[in-house]
Amino acid sequence: MAINGSPLTRARYQDYELFMARRRRQIVATINEDSPEEARQALQVLSTVDPGATRDPLVAQMSALVLEREVVNRLTSLYPSTVYTGGPGDMGLDAMIPTERGVVGVQVKAGTSPLSGSQLRIMALSAAHARPTTAPDGVGALLVVTNKPLPTTLPRRLRELRSVLPVAVVRWVDEQDDQALQAQVQQLSAQIRTSE
């Protein structure tokens, strides 16, 4: 690893050989069938036992999916009419929350680097043009939920996006952040432009 920067995926000592990548795939396959809470714990144990797993694209993809499922579960408990629209390989909205004034689209972004302004703009434009069958009038606002650190330029970026549609970003790590999640949904719902 020190020579070419590639993660260690196989180690051999005499007749013993350990395939780290194969073990990761097996663990990820079983995690996919667990509840989001159990899956998160399993990923934490995996990263403790195998620190290189956090750089494995398969593990990163599963971590993102687990966060998405956790957020949607929490939203469903707060807003029972929440519709899950995401899943593996999904690139658009992950959930939609019908409110009195319109639909709040939800996109979950996992990772370790801060959200960029261009990422927010792309998500806002894509949500503004989304016409899912469950929201024939379109999405009236976008809530971006992330476990990433929030950039210091976030307020300015959000003001720039107001012309596209109301956008809010909330950092959600676990159920202790539910209050912030709920507050952002309520604020966005109040900002949805109605066609009356």
Query: How many strands in all?
Result: 7
Spatial separation of the terminal alpha carbons? 62 Å
Radius of gyration: 19 Å
What average pLDDT do the residues reach? Answer: 78
Pattern of helices and strands:
EEHHHEEEHEHEH
Outline the structure in words:
- The chain is α/β, with parallel strands linked by helices and 196 residues long.
- The chain has six helices and seven strands, in the order ββαααβββαβαβα.
- It has helices spanning 20-31, 36-49, 57-78, 117-128, 154-161, 178-191; strands at 10-13, 16-19, 83-84, 95-98, 103-109, 141-146, 167-171.
- The strands form two sheets. The chain has a five-stranded mixed sheet with strand order 3-4-5-6-7, with helices on both faces.
- The longest helix has 22 residues, at 57-78.
- The protein starts with 9 loop residues before the first strand and ends in a 5-residue tail after the last helix.
- Residues 1-8 have low confidence and may be disordered.
